[in-house]
UniProtKB/TrEMBL annotation:
InterPro entries: Phstyr_phstse_ac (IPR004327), PTPA_C_lid (IPR043170), PTPA_sf (IPR037218). This is Serine/threonine-protein phosphatase 2A activator. It comes from the Eukaryota. Residues 396-411 have a biased composition (Polar residues). It comes from Zygotorulaspora mrakii (Zygosaccharomyces mrakii). The lineage of its organism: Eukaryota, Fungi, Dikarya, Ascomycota, Saccharomycotina. It catalyses: [protein]-peptidylproline (omega=180) = [protein]-peptidylproline (omega=0).
């Protein structure tokens, strides 16, 4: 398992060397080594920090009392405005709309200046790393997709700014929610405007086509709160979900699903339906989703191969020894990744999948999207006898047991069964 740190990491910009992030994870061995890196330890620290901060908090849409938060929200808003300046191209498209690449080009050309305006002069040496993680937070301009790896990059941005002391000690859980709420609104605009595909999605057997962190933060908002207005089971009630979508990230994510998909919720979102009907408290939902995140996001090659490493914020070094981790560049997995990226993992089998039902995405008029992968959902009946094993069973992830996965999920590719 990934090593944990208990103390807030902080960086001295004056003495820390920052370099443009580069690719280090080329295969499953790299994914395995990632679990013992300083980078993942820092990511896990900030994940758990923000999960704790948002407990019993609502999304507040008013400006923050922390100027740095408002400045960052304004930066995201300026990127959203670029969507208005970059309308989707007309005509049919098999995959995502190519205008999205123009949007990414505009973002890439403006990020350095936006970050220079955001950061104090003394902190600007880190922009070479920060702009990579921020630029990678909005999907791939090459594959025209968005998924949990891009969501992870945004977490890296917020954590990096935290390491700089940018947020100050006055930042609150509501500020964290305001930042993520602004980010998710921008990303959902991108998905709908440019019909972005799911990146590495497990289809109906996955948690969500695009997001995971949103569900962790949203469930944490209601975790251990005796005044929680709804229970996990209530997310099958469309009206209730819509009513709380403005104040809770979990409902916001579910509401997006209701907007873009049709058909029974139990078919097109079977894992979310199972959580709703079998997990009875938000605290258990949150803890189960954290366990799932460790297995299905942070420990999956198709996801973390796109997380690159600099020498400042998220270095590729062993957290215990302080030495640089090995890099294995010669791997057939690189060549196979594009072909398998929607189904890869130790867990998914489509061989016995039942026929497709009528569940479909509702895309904006004139989107011109004709491909079969984004508009059509393989809605498979949620029957336990038909389900392929996808990581640890849902019941185990959301139980009180401390283990997060079966031992085989943490075996070294070389056969070493010792967990990190």
């Amino acid at each position: 398992m990934a090593a944990q740190m208990s103390k807030q990491p902080a960086l001295d910009v004056g003495t820390t060397k920052f370099t443009a992030p580069v690719k280090k994870i080329f295969d499953s061995q790299g994914t395995y080594d990632f679990q013992s890196s300083l980078a993942i330890s820092r990511l896990n620290f900030f994940l758990r920090k923000y999960v704790q901060m948002v407990k019993k908090q609502k999304i507040c849409h008013d400006p923050s009392n922390v100027p740095a938060v408002n400045s960052f929200v304004q930066l995201l808003s300026s990127l959203s405005a670029l969507i208005d300046q970059t309308p989707p191209l007309a005509g049919p498209r098999r995959y995502g709309n190519l205008a999205c690449r123009d949007w990414h080009s505009k973002v890439d050309s403006s990020l350095s200046k936006l970050l220079e305006d955001l950061l104090p002069q003394n902190d600007q040496r880190c922009i070479v790393e920060l702009k990579y993680y921020l630029g990678n937070s909005f999907g791939s301009s090459t594959r025209l997709d968005y998924g949990t790896g891009h969501e992870l990059s945004f977490l890296a941005v917020i954590g990096a700014l935290d390491m700089l002391g940018f947020w100050t000690e006055n930042i609150t859980g509501q500020d964290i929610l305001l930042i993520f709420d602004t980010y998710y609104k921008l990303v959902r605009r991108l998905i709908l405007t440019y019909t972005l595909e799911p990146a590495g999605s497990h289809g109906v057997w996955g948690l969500d086509d695009h997001f995971h962190l949103a569900y962790i933060l949203g469930s944490s908002q209601w975790s251990n709160d005796p005044k929680t207005p709804i229970s996990p089971r209530d997310i099958t009630n469309v009206d209730l979900v819509q009513g709380y979508a403005d104040s809770n990230l979990y409902c916001q994510a579910i509401n997006f699903i209701y907007k873009v998909k049709s058909g029974p919720f139990s078919e097109h979102s079977s894992m979310l339906y199972d959580i709703a009907t079998t997990v009875h408290t938000w605290s258990k939902v949150q803890s189960g989703l954290l366990k799932m995140y460790a297995v299905e996001v942070l420990n999956k090659f198709p996801v973390v191969q796109h997380f690159w490493f600099g020498t400042g914020f998220y270095p590729w070094i062993d957290i215990k020894s302080g030495k640089e981790l090995p890099v294995y560049e010669n791997s057939t997995e690189i060549e196979r990744e594009e072909e398998l990226r929607t189904t890869q993992g130790p867990t998914i089998s489509l061989a016995n999948a039942p026929p497709i039902t009528s569940a479909t995405y509702h895309l904006p008029p004139g989107s011109g999207h004709t491909g079969s992968r984004l508009p059509v959902v393989n809605a498979i009946p949620s029957k336990s006898s038909m389900r392929p094993t996808m990581g640890p069973p849902t019941s185990r992830l959301f139980s009180n047991r401390s283990n997060t996965a079966s031992p085989t999920l943490y075996q070294s590719p070389k056969g070493d069964e010792t967990a990190h």
